[in-house]
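Researcher: We plan to redesign the surface later, but first we want a full-length starting point. Tokens attached.
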């Protein structure tokens, strides 16, 4: 009798696994569409387990193409996890995303790059417009139930970093170390042989408030080439150092 019950349970489990593996992605999306707005998917292909979306749109922004492949063994461990890749003109990224059944939503081993202007626009930076490209390698990120980033560890290379407004300034390449402290997520920013030496820290608090503090030390070449632009960023002290301070709230 016990053996028959075990066989029955095994058969039922196998049936549900089969249904998950073969369940069309298009039908699965209909069940979750209302929960993930304003994220929209279309041109769906494949299954819930392994599939793709030819069009991914967030609000009115087209984000490109998405593909995914779920990890079946992680269900036994109490979480849903998938490998993914997203490809668009201004954003390309891939990695692993997951959600513990009774816990944290997270992303791991995230690699990719995106336009700095695109990034600035979507997090709500209004005091300046960033320029260049952000190339990122994030070990782990964790998110709140509402989707807000709560913790992050990794590295970002800001290639040809600069500001296109209110002043046009090119800093060169910047290295950004990302860590999580008690106060929030900290971005430690330093230059790599830039004509403008940079030391800065950006703190992003859990409620979305941010504060940027740092100092710029232009080399003689930078002072000659960007004198007017640098003047808009702040008045240098007697040593030629420009102190910067910005604060605001992210979207």
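Model: Full-length starting sequence:
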């Amino acid at each position: 009798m016990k053996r028959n019950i075990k066989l029955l349970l095994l058969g039922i489990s196998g049936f549900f696994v089969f249904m998950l593996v073969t369940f069309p992605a298009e039908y699965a999306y209909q069940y979750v569409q209302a929960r993930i707005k304003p994220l929209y998917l279309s041109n769906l292909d494949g299954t819930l387990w392994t599939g793709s979306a030819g069009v991914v749109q967030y609000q009115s922004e087209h984000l490109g193409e998405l593909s995914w492949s779920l990890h079946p063994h992680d269900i036994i461990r109490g979480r849903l996890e998938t490998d993914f890749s997203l490809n668009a003109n201004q954003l390309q990224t891939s990695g692993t995303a997951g959600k513990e059944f009774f816990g944290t939503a997270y992303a791991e081993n995230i690699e990719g790059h995106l336009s700095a202007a695109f990034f600035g626009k979507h997090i709500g930076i209004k005091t300046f417009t960033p320029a260049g490209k952000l190339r990122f390698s994030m070990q782990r990120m964790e998110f709140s139930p509402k989707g807000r980033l709560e913790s992050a560890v990794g590295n970002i290379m800001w290639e040809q970093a600069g500001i296109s407004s209110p002043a046009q300034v090119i800093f060169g390449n910047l290295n950004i170390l990302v860590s999580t402290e008690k106060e929030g997520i900290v971005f430690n920013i330093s230059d790599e042989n830039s004509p403008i030496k940079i030391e800065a820290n950006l703190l992003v608090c859990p409620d979305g408030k941010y504060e940027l503090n740092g100092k710029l030390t232009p080399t003689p070449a930078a002072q000659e080439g960007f004198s007017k632009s640098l003047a808009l960023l702040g008045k240098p002290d007697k040593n030629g150092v420009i102190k910067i301070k910005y604060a605001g709230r992210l979207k």
